[in-house]
Write a structure and sequence with these properties.
The structure is a single chain. α3 runs antiparallel to α4, α4 runs antiparallel to α5 and α13 runs parallel beside α16. This protein is α+β, with helices and mostly antiparallel strands. The two termini are about 40 Å apart. The strands form three sheets. Strands 10-9-13-12-11-14-15 form a seven-stranded mixed beta sheet. Among the domains are: about 120 residues, Immunoglobulin-like, CATH 2.60.40; about 130 residues, Glutaredoxin (3-Layer(aba) Sandwich), CATH 3.40.30.
Length: about 500
């Protein structure tokens, strides 16, 4: 379920790539004598993935031609051998008919090209940096070993050598950009260039250096050297890496902060349909599948503001509707939302209201007597409750998802759950718990505050103590909710009631 929507979006995205491409066809002759009568493949980057676009069988002399009359986007492409080794080359807007000759002993070292000036420069550059790149890798292995041995002087010495080698490669890139500014390779090099952060810190109003200045400067200028609407960069590894690093490492990892940046980045990418499609797809994938609690709010935001509004123009209506349906399933369980009230029968057949529980924290626990994982988690929860119920002022509202009261009572006895508020989820005077709590398996554990506001979800029992201890010191929601958000429903004023086991 979790990855379904991302896969659907990507499949339609790839299907529709050719519809928006305006660049011409290609005719690329390949000469690899050692691969006579053998298949070779033409691949390309799309984000961080590599795909095969075409294949040919070389003749008895190791010659063959990739040829299409279809329009094909510019970018970094791959000549792939049967051993899965590959040679990267540039397919730009202008040079579409050229010849690549190489051999299997060293695809890059022996590569020659005719008819493409940019690939001549590209191959020459890669050959030039091949030696320092290998040196960097070897030095990095030494640094790793010295770190394990706590030899800090050696670590510094070799890190300095690595920095010097990287600086020399960057100098070569800058020189190339100055000499050939209109090439795709120059745009690729520029996209990898980091913002130059000023060393001097401005002073704050109290006269002290602003320690946050460099971070905010870096964040503000992160996209200066890359055009997010450059479709050709999408077919290189650079585009995806920049995007992923920004959202996962640069910006503050809080849903509200991420949502603000989503709108900014999508606005930049929207100048080109292909880049907009990719960025929206990746954001959807990244936050639909995220394991960070609370990040599902971002997925719901994307559904409401981009899919519901028709901006995912390449998707059929049925696929969009599935995304919207999933967002609506998640919506009632978002962190900070008042938990939907459950009014359920306890073992004495009394109706008990979740919202009437008088406790600082309510552990809302969905379980099933036959669930294998519940058999491990439930005893842990009983022990946790007995140990910390007074420390944190806890109550457990345990919702059995099995319709049989007999099986429920047997399990309550087996696990000694008598101090919990035990109710049966099937016999309800309110709503279907599965719909409002996104229950598709058990066990599932929610943590509610005194206002029955969801402050954590899908925790394991082992995570409870650290979460509650931290929340006591740093509450995510220190203030009460708006009066209209929270209203107790007095079905049964006794909470908990004496139950019949």
């Amino acid at each position: 379920m979790k990855k379904f929507f991302a896969i659907v979006i990507l499949s339609f995205l790839l299907i529709n790539i050719s519809l928006a491409q305006k660049t011409p066809a290609y005719k690329i002759q390949v000469i690899i004598p050692q691969l006579a009568d053998t298949n070779v493949y033409l691949g390309y980057y799309y984000g961080k993935w590599q795909y095969v676009r075409d294949s040919i069988k070389l003749d008895k002399n190791g010659r063959g031609t990739f040829h299409t009359n279809d329009t094909v986007g510019s970018g970094m492409y791959l000549l792939i051998t049967p051993s899965k080794k590959y040679l990267e080359f540039i397919l730009n807007d202008n040079e579409r008919i050229f010849t690549i000759e190489t051999d299997t002993t060293d695809l890059l070292g022996n590569a020659k090209v005719k008819g493409s000036k940019e690939n001549e420069l590209f191959f020459q550059f890669n050959k030039t940096i091949s030696k320092p790149s290998k040196e960097i890798y070897q030095l990095q292995q030494k640094v790793k070993d010295f770190k394990q041995k706590n030899l800090n002087d050696s670590v510094k010495y070799y890190n300095d050598k690595i920095k010097n080698l990287i600086d020399s490669i960057n100098t070569m890139k800058l020189k190339y950009m100055e000499q050939y500014p209109n090439t795709l390779l120059a745009r690729i090099f520029k996209a990898t260039k980091e913002p130059e952060i000023p060393d001097t810190l401005p002073l704050t109003t109290d006269g002290k250096p602003d320690s946050t200045y460099q971070y905010y400067y870096y964040k503000e200028h992160y996209w200066d050297n890359i055009d997010l609407a450059d479709e050709a960069l999408l077919r290189t590894p650079i585009y995806h890496n920049k995007l992923e690093f920004y959202f996962n490492n640069v910006i503050v990892q809080h849903p509200d902060s991420i949502i603000k940046e989503i709108d900014k980045v999508l606005a930049k990418a929207s100048k080109n349909k292909e880049t907009f499609k990719y960025v929206l797809w990746w954001l959807t994938y990244n936050y639909e599948t995220s394991k960070v609690m609370g990040f599902d709010k971002i997925f719901v935001y994307l559904a409401d503001n981009y899919y519901k509004t028709g901006k995912a123009f390449w998707l059929p209506e049925t696929s969009v509707q599935r995304i919207l349906d999933r967002a609506n399933e998640i919506r009632p369980t978002l962190i900070g939302t008042i938990a939907t009230n459950l009014i359920l029968l306890d073992t004495a057949k009394n109706l008990i209201s979740l919202h009437n529980i008088n406790a600082k924290y309510t552990l809302l626990y969905f379980w099933d007597p036959t669930c294998g994982h519940c058999k491990k988690e439930t005893p842990k929860l009983v022990d946790f409750y007995n140990k910390y119920k007074d420390t944190f002022n806890l109550q457990v509202f345990a919702v059995c998802t099995d319709s049989s009261f007999n099986e429920m009572k047997k399990a309550i006895k087996t696990y000694n759950m008598y101090d919990f508020i035990n109710v049966n989820g099937i016999y309800t005077a309110s709503v279907d718990f599965r719909k409002y709590y996104d229950i598709y398996s058990t066990p599932v554990l929610y943590v509610l505050d005194q206002y029955k506001r969801i402050i954590a979800k899908r925790l394991s029992v082992d995570q409870l103590y650290d979460f509650l201890k931290n929340y006591e010191k740093n509450p995510l929601f220190p203030d009460p909710p708006e009066p209209m958000q929270w209203k107790s429903i007095p079905i049964n004023p006794q909470s908990p009631v004496e139950q019949n086991y």
